[in-house]
Write a structure and sequence with these properties.
The complex is a heterodimer of chains A (143) and B (343).
Chain A lengths: L2 H5 L3 E6 L5 H10 L11 E2 L8 E5 L2 E2 L3 H10 L5 E5 L1 H5 L9 E3 L9 E3 L6 H22 L1
Parallel strand pairs in A: 1-2, 1-3, 3-5, 5-7
Antiparallel strand pairs in A: 4-6
Helix pairs in contact in A: 2-5
Chain B lengths: L7 H37 L9 H11 L10 H21 L15 H7 L1 H13 L3 H36 L11 H6 L2 H4 L2 H21 L11 H4 L9 H26 L5 H4 L4 H30 L5 H28 L1
Helix pairs in contact in B: 1-3, 1-11, 1-13, 2-11, 3-5, 3-11, 5-6, 6-9, 6-14, 9-11, 9-13, 9-14, 11-13
Classes of the chains: A alpha/beta (143), B mainly alpha (343).
């Protein structure tokens, strides 16, 4: 049971909380042959039960709040949360809109932020590396 | 009646230890082949692909994760299904000859038993799906049952016609040999018994069996029961952590066993008599490696290539492909073999 096995086999669940689809398309670009994150063992899965990483895009609209919380609880521990795009970080173009419940980190704990509107695929891959660094730090802190 | 022979204790210990070793080796090679399969598929799609050890990492990671049992699930069934699925898949390895050797329990079961044993992992799979209370899993489990019923007939036709043809020779012997025993199949390979028409018929049966292998392994054109993009994981949707890991391993072992079955039925040749290696140890090593090459060839054709070349069928199309198309094709193979006998 090593940290290496965990961080080199991240399965990702993609959660759209009201995004404009821009970030979602960039996430798909990360999976295409040009960027191919499967070489790092990263796979897109269809169920939060299988996931290690929640990839959240978009500002959280009011309707999504209970669902986001529920999906976060459905994901088995240990898990990471990554926010992709400006909207999820501080609202982006929807800043202070009437139908928003707030950025993602006011609803569930967030580990990694990926700014950009939309972020480039390279930035998303970089954020995975940032998540690895965070995991390593956490392990050193524990042991 | 004593199935274990004279030395009941020694034979019992040999079977228990041998099963453990076989399942371990089968699992390790199955995972290696899964890694190679993912790498090759990635290369065929113009990607780099994960490292070959990726399945080992996946399994390690899944063991680290929390196993959640949903509130609505029938919890004992939900927990038992992955174990049953893994155990019944591993059971296949004990009856199928591996690495050019006799099967460990080869004396107790034949190819027909394998046809029945192959049903059990799929049944356990479906039971797990029904027990997990998710509508996605229920739909997935129903689909799994439909697919199971669909490919059973072509599979049975392929194996029975092979045994029937071999039986024509072996039942004349004194004493008559059971044509479905893997040892008999290895002694009288179908290719040396039949004429040109029979060879075409046997090739058709091989094709049928390869397509059935793809469906048994729930690989892409036939993976309607899991269907990541439409059913969000289907049967497996509620499984996580250790339970998911057991299903993952069962799937890997089942794919390895199914490919070994095709090898044992249609390519039961060993390399060492051809090359003329006499020493038992060296011959064992050569045959073992040759077996791995044969299994790789079967897996490459039936899983990697079909998976890369095709998109997923709809559930009705899967049934059509198996019940109508593959059944007709396999019956043509059977008729060709029968005609070959008469000519």
């Amino acid at each position: 049971m090593s940290l290496k096995a965990f961080k080199r086999a991240l399965w990702v669940y993609h959660l759209n909380t009201g995004s404009c689809n821009g970030c979602d398309i960039e996430i798909l670009a990360v999976l295409t042959p040009r960027y191919d994150v499967e070489r790092f063992g990263i796979m897109l899965v269809g169920s939060p039960r299988h996931a290690d990483v929640l990839l959240v895009t978009g500002p959280v609209v009011k309707q999504m709040v209970p669902r986001v919380k529920r999906i976060y609880e459905q994901t088995p521990d240990p898990k990471l949360v990554m926010v992709v795009g400006n909207c999820g970080i501080e609202g982006g173009v929807f800043y202070e809109s009437y139908n928003l419940a707030g950025p993602v980190d006011q609803i569930i704990p967030v580990d990694v932020y990926v700014p950009g509107c939309p972020p480039r695929p390279e930035a998303i891959i970089h954020s995975v590396v940032m998540a690895w660094v965070k995991l390593e730090k956490a392990e050193q802190g524990v042991s | 009646m004593n199935l274990l022979g004279e030395n009941i204790w020694i034979n019992g210990v040999i079977i228990i230890v041998g099963s453990a070793v076989l399942v371990f080796i089968g699992g390790v090679f199955g995972m290696l082949y899964r890694g190679i399969d993912r790498k090759l598929v990635a290369h065929m799609q113009g990607r780099v692909g994960p490292p070959i050890v990726q399945p080992f990492r996946d399994v390690q990671k899944l063991l680290m994760k929390e196993s959640i049992i949903p509130d609505g699930a029938v919890s004992w069934l939900f927990t038992a299904a992955p174990f049953i699925c893994l155990i019944t898949s591993a059971l296949l390895l004990l009856y199928i000859p591996l690495f050019g050797l006799q099967a460990l329990l080869g004396g107790f079961g034949d190819a027909l038993l394998i046809v029945y044993l192959l049903i059990l992992p799929s049944l356990a799979f479906a039971v797990g799906g029904f027990a997990s209370s998710s509508p996605y899993a229920t739909v997935g489990a129903q689909r799994e049952m439909v697919v199971l019923m669909s490919y059973e007939f072509p599979l049975a036709v392929a194996i029975v016609s092979l045994g029937w043809r071999i039986g024509h020779v072996t039942t004349q012997l004194t004493p008559p040999a059971n044509p479905f025993m893997f040892s008999t199949i290895a002694e009288y390979p179908i290719w040396s018994l039949v004429g040109p028409l029979g060879i075409i018929g046997s090739l058709i049966l091989v094709f049928t069996l390869l397509v059935v292998t793809s469906g048994k392994g729930a690989k892409v054109p036939f993976d309607v029961a899991e269907a990541e993009t439409e059913l969000a994981g289907g049967i497996l949707v509620e499984y996580s952590g250790r339970n998911l890991c057991l299903f993952y391993l069962a799937d890997i072992i089942k794919a390895f066993a199914m490919s070994s079955l095709v090898v044992a039925l249609f390519i039961p040749y060993n390399l060492s008599p051809l090359v003329g290696i006499g020493t038992p140890v060296l011959a064992g090593i050569v045959d073992g490696l040759f077996f791995l090459v044969k299994v790789f060839a079967v897996m490459f054709i039936s899983m990697s290539v079909i998976r890369t070349a095709m998109a997923r069928f709809k559930i009705s199309q899967v049934s059509w492909v198996y019940i109508i198309a593959m059944t007709l094709i396999s019956l043509v193979g059977l008729i060709l073999i029968a005609v070959d006998l008469m000519v």
